[in-house]
Each structure stands twice: as structure tokens, then as C-alpha cells.
Amino acid sequence: MRKQLFFLIITSSVSMTLSLTSGCGSDDSSGGGGKSSGGTAGTSGSGGASTGGASGSGGSSTGGAAGAGGSNTGGAAGAGGSNTGGAAGSGGTSTGGASGSGGADAGACTAFPDAGAACNSLANGAAFVPVTQVATAVPTGTGGTIAEGLYHLTKIEGYTGNPLGSLTMKQTLEICGGVGQLVGDEQGPPVYHKSFTFTTSGTGITATTTCSTQSPNVDIVYSSYTATPTSLTLYSTAVKFSVTYTKQ
Fold first, then answer.
1. Fewest C-beta atoms under 10 Å: which of 117, 130, 197, 229?
2. Is 0.70 surpassed by the pTM of this model?
3. b or e along 95-111 (b: 16 or more beta carbons within 10 Å of the residue's beta carbon)?
4. Mind listing the pLDDT tens digit for each residue in 33-73?
5. From CA 207, how far away is CA 210, in angstroms rounded?
């Protein structure tokens, strides 16, 4: 009875072992409808992701070259991809690339044409300014670079001993390429236009009239000037006054 029971146990064990090892294939692969663990992994197909290598179509890559539609950090981007620090592919974007052309040159001036007998065609857009009397000697300017552009008269100061009285006037001045063009109105005499050339040396300025419609023509000799990026002040020790123009 014991031998018969022992034989049945052995037979059952063998039968179970045969059931576990049956079917096609070995430990590395499964048969039809079977299951395998521990086998060798296959390579990724298109659309898979790669770290450090080249990605397939639609995949992404870190450090490698991206395929069509992929993204790339540090490498060259493919069509439609994006790139940081590198060259952008077709349709891509680039950070740190060179800017295109089409920039504007700020500060350029436009000289008004010579209007023949009228000297210039400058319009007077300034407001009337009265003389402010100041009981002091004429200051000396500090010089500087005269900015090109359009100016309006904004201040007139008469110093001790000046003959200006209660003069009120408005002037618009255009400076470009060493040439000045001016239109003036002194509330009474006719509006006049002037054109002139000028040179500077240290704090001194010398102007030479090339055309004037003022009658009689009056040329002021200026002894010094002060120029800032936004204003120009001319000082005359001969007439004992100064005029300040503000850049528009």
C-alpha cells in the first residue's frame, strides 16, 4: 500500500514537470500564445525615443540630432524642430542667432531744400517767447556736440546792459551737416528765413550767413555756446543776451 502511494506521488510530480516544460521554444522565447520573461529586448522602431543617439521619425533626442518633427537640445534641429544655442532647421526657432536686416538709423536728420530767394521752406512751429532780463554778466558756454535735428526757441535771456527791451519772438531752427536753416517772427517785422553754415572750436562757434530774407539783415555774433543732446544755447557778449533752442 505504501509503495503504491509513493509511486503515485512520483508520477504526479513528473506529470507536473512535463506540463511546465511543454510547448515549442526554450526559456528565452515563448511559443504560439505562450509567455516569455528574461528574453533579449528588440530594438525600438520608428517613433521611439533615444537618449544620446539619433531619434526616429517623430522621436525626441537629448544631445543627438533630431529627426523630422523632433526636438533637440544642443544639437542641430531637423525640419520643424526647435533648437537652443544651435542653428535652426527649416521652420524651427533659434536662440542666440544673428538678427536680420531692416533696422532704422536713429537720429538721422533731413535737410530742407534751398528754396531760392526764400532761402528755405522751413515752417515755424515754435511759440512766442519774451525776453527775460537777468542782472548779471553774460555767461560763457561749455561747448559740446551739437545734435542734428529740429529745434524750437524756448528761452531768451538779456543780461546787464542789453538793448533788447521787451522783445518777443519765435524761431524754428533746423541743423544738419554743418548747415543751419532758420525761420523767425518778431511780432511786427515780416517773417524772415535764413540759411547759414557754422563751425565750432572749443566753446566758440562761428556762423556765416549764406542767404537771408530779413530786411535789414541782422547777423548776431555769438561768443560761445553750450550743447546737450536735447538743447543748444548761444551766448553773445556783443548784444549781451542768450537764446536757447530745445530739440523736438
1. 117
2. no
3. eeeeeeeeeeeeeeeee
4. 333 333 343 343 343 333 333 333 433 333 334 334 333 43
5. 10
